[in-house]
Amino acid sequence: KASLPLVIATWNVPNATAKAWDVLQNNGSVLDAVEQGVMVEEADEKNQSVGKGGRPDRDGNVTLDACIMNKEGDCGAVVYMQNITHAITVARKVMEDTPHVMLAGKGAEQFAVESGMKRENLLTDASKKEWEDWLVEKEYKPIINIENHDTIGMLAIDKNGDISGACTTSGLAYKMAGRVGDSPIIGSGLFVDNEVGGAVATGLGEEVVKTVGSFLVVELMRQGKSPQEACEEAIGRIVTKPNSNYKNFQVGYIAVNKQGETGSYSIHEWFSMTKYQDGKNENYQSDFYLK
Ligand code: SD4
Predict the structure, then answer these.
(1) Peptide bond preceding 184 in cis form (omega within 30 of 0)
(2) Spatial strand order in the sheet of 197-203
(3) Which of 63, 164, 40, 56 shows the shortest CA–CA distance to 109?
(4) Molecular function terms in GO for this entry (predicted)?
(5) Could you give the percent of the chain with pLDDT greater than 90?
(6) pTM of the model as a whole
(7) Cα 99 to ligand 1 centre (Å)
């Protein structure tokens, strides 16, 4: 049996997993752990895929997507939200303080401000400069891989075996205004079932949504697959579609089951998972489909 607690996250995000681990060590809840863990990346202006410092859409607006899910199976999400750094906290407030599961755009921002969060400019000089350079050619193609810095999805399982998950992103750089990806969609970007396990996705959100990826991974684990096998089969659903263009985009999944076994798999090389377990905080290169 795997040693608990443990925390896993998409990509190389040791500061985020360390924060979540600290919360668990200090008897914080598993929900606090994933929320506070991903907040580290939201606040980090150097991570240009999440929160403050995120890359904008084509019009220069940073728009955030996030969702969170607790061990009771409740969830909350914000989509297309601007001017608030900690989208995950707003998602949690949607879950806990409203009768709804999802708020979008202006309504999400208004709710955040009414809940005491402050408006901030999320477009940093660095991301603004890159966007201005992009405007010259305006060539739009999904970026296959951004090593180290990307959408953060996190799953944690506490010493009692209870699971929670969080996912937060600024979405694809230079997306169309109004575009929403997989990350705030429960079942696509994130799914947790405390009886079975949890999964989160990263990469080209459209492809994750089309296959309801994270829900699929969890259901495959329910049928007896290991987290690794489940992630591989969910990637298989994408790459075996007729006319799949998978050579041109990346999707990656990480998963944990109730026993604390973990898995990760992607289409292309260079996806990785950060895992904090047994006091060790390590990054693991993920196995991948396109060899
Ligand atoms: C999206 N899945 O908005 C997110 C972006 C991402 O690696 O994960 N990029 O589609």
Answers:
(1) no
(2) 190-193, 197-203, 251-257, 262-266, 287-288
(3) 63
(4) hydrolase activity, acting on carbon-nitrogen (but not peptide) bonds, in linear amides
(5) 89
(6) 0.96
(7) 27
202 Cα to the center of ligand 1, angstroms = 5
Short-list 117, 129, 15, CA closest to 66: 117
Tokens of 69: 């899910």
Q: Please report the ipTM that was assigned to this predicted complex.
A: 0.97
DSSP category for residue 223: T
Cross-sheet strand order for the sheet of 6-10: 102-104, 75-81, 64-69, 163-169, 152-157, 6-10, 272-277, 280-285
Mean pLDDT of the chain: 95
Give the burial class of 234: count Cβ atoms within 10 A of its Cβ; 0-12 exposed, 13-18 middle, 19 or more buried: buried
What is the gyration radius of the CA atoms in the chain, in angstroms?
17
Q: Which of 79, 182, 214 to mutate to test the pocket of ligand 1 (most atoms within 8 A of CB)?
A: 182
Contact 188, 205 (CB under 8 A): yes
CA atoms within 13 A on the CB side of 151: 33
